[in-house]
Amino acid sequence: MKYSLSPIGAITSPYKEKFGIPRQPGLVTAARATLTLLPPYNLPETVRGLEGFSHVWLIFVFHGTQAQGWKPTVRPPRLGGNARLGVFATRSTFRPNPIGLTVAELCGIQVSGSNITLELAGADLLDGTPILDIKPYLPYADALPQARAGFAPDAPLAPQPVVFSAQASQQCAQKQAQWQSDIRVLIEQILSQDPRPSYQHGQVVDRVYAMRLYDFDLRWHYTAAGIEVLELADLQPDT
Ligand code: SAH
C-alpha cells in the first residue's frame, strides 16, 4: 500500500548544510528556526490552541539525504563510525522512509493574514526542511526519563572549550545585529559538540574546518587548548 504525504510547512534555519548540525534537538538551544505553513494549511484555525504548548513535535522529510536511499545497517557517529547497528536501532537519516522526528521549543506563533509562522528554538533541522506534521508535546505521555537508551544513554559530552579570535568576536557582534540572534552563543554551542566524527575528538589536526551558517562560512581550527573560531567569512557571490 502506498501513501501520499505532502508538506504542511517548511523550515528556515541557520543551518545551511548538514555538516555541523547537532545530532539531536535540544543540544544547541540557541538555534532559532522558523516554520512557515504552506497553503492550504496556512489558516489561523490550524494553530488555534497551540500557543498553550511550550514544545512541539515535528515530523519531517530528510530531504537533504533522501536521494541516497537506505541500508539495513548503519554506523552511528556516536559509536565512532565503526560499529554497525540496524537502521531501526538508530536515528540515522538513511531510512526506508526518509522521515525524521524532532522536538522544538515553541517560542511564538505569528499570524499575519495568510502568513503563519512558528518561531522555534533548539531544532536540529537543515534549512528548507519540509515539515509533514506538527503535534503538541505532552510531557505526561511523551517524557519517559526512566527509559533505557541502548548505545546513547546520555547526551554526548561537550568535549572542548571554544574561544574566539579578535576578528571572529568582532564579526559575531556584526552578525548578531544583522540577524537579531545570539550568534556567539550559537557558535559556542555548535562547536563545543565538536561536529567531527567522534573518533576524531581530541585530535589536533592542522587544518581549518568550515560550515555554513546564516549568510557566512564559520571557520575554526583545533588547538591544544580547545577550539578556536577564526572568522565568520562572508560567502562568495558564486556559492
Ligand atoms: N532528530 C532527528 C534527526 C536525527 S539525525 C531524528 O531523530 O529523526 C540528525 C542529523 O539530521 C543532523 O545531524 C542533520 O545533519 C540531519 N538533518 C537535519 N535536517 C535534515 C534534512 N532536512 N535532510 C537531511 N538531513 C537532515
TrEMBL record:
GO molecular function: tRNA (L-threonylcarbamoyladenosine(37)-C2) methyltransferase activity
SUPFAM superfamilies: YaeB-like
Pfam families, per database record: TrmO_C, TrmO_N
InterPro entries in the cross-refs: TrmO-like_N, TrmO_C, UPF0066_cons_site, YaeB-like, YaeB-like_sf, YaeB_N_sf
Keyword annotations from UniProtKB, A to Z: S-adenosyl-L-methionine
Domain TsaA-like per the UniProt entry, residue ranges: 5-146
Superkingdom, natural source: Bacteria
Family, per entry: Belongs to the tRNA methyltransferase O family.
NCBIfam families the UniProt entry points to: tRNA_TsaA
Protein name: tRNA (N6-threonylcarbamoyladenosine(37)-N6)-methyltransferase TrmO
